[in-house]
Amino acid sequence: MQSYTSKENFFIGVSLSNSSNYDSSICVLNRNSEIILMDKFYFASDIDYFFENSPYVKNSTIAVSVPYDNRLLEGKWRIHSKNYKILGDYFKINRDDWTNRISKRCCDTFKKLKEKGLKIIRCDINQLRSSYGISSHYLSRTSVDCKNLQISLKIKYGFDKLPENMLSASNLEAVICAMFAGEYSNNIQTSKMFEIEKIPVLARRMDIN
Predict the structure, then answer these.
(1) Is residue 177 within 8 Å of residue 121, measured between CB atoms?
(2) Predicted local confidence at residue 41, as pLDDT
């Protein structure tokens, strides 16, 4: 298990869902890579409350996963995109931002944190899993995938205090984001993929394990 030498004492990982219909999770690691807090949220207001009131936030680095917007898959878009349907002048291909792949949920929250001077980055959970060598060999977020990921975090990265009962996918992904936050604070080499509301989405180098 890695120990961090940066000035920050806490490293916060957020696995963010694209809506309140799915759970989001937060994990806080200390400088010895020990999990000192893990929690699950559904509503954006609960996430706001955590960052406004948690004592760990002031002296931390934060890594938040990028949630992907699934509106492109909704029935309305599928109907309008049929190649045999006559399109009238009223139809705009990207009305209501249908073709956007990225959800901007909670962006205002993270923007405020950045304005307060906190070190905050975004990340892609699939890229991190691949970089850490814990990619999914099963259908993502299924029970067997979560079990495999939890065992990998215990054995490969020393999180032996994770419980025996299976954690949710968002809990485990929050641990990975917190690991990345800790490495980022220790100046690990990263590359910038793109930005969301002026916050960089960073990729971890694949060959540093």
Answers:
(1) no
(2) 95
pLDDT of residue 168: 94
CA distance 58 to 63: 14
* Half-sphere exposure for 202 (CA within 13 Å, toward CB): 21
Enter the tokens of residue 158. Answer: 């020393």
% of residues, the chain, pLDDT over 90 = 68
Q: What is the mean pLDDT of residues 174-196?
A: 95
Residue 138: what pLDDT?
A: 84
How many Cα atoms within 13 Å fall on the side-chain side of residue 147? 5
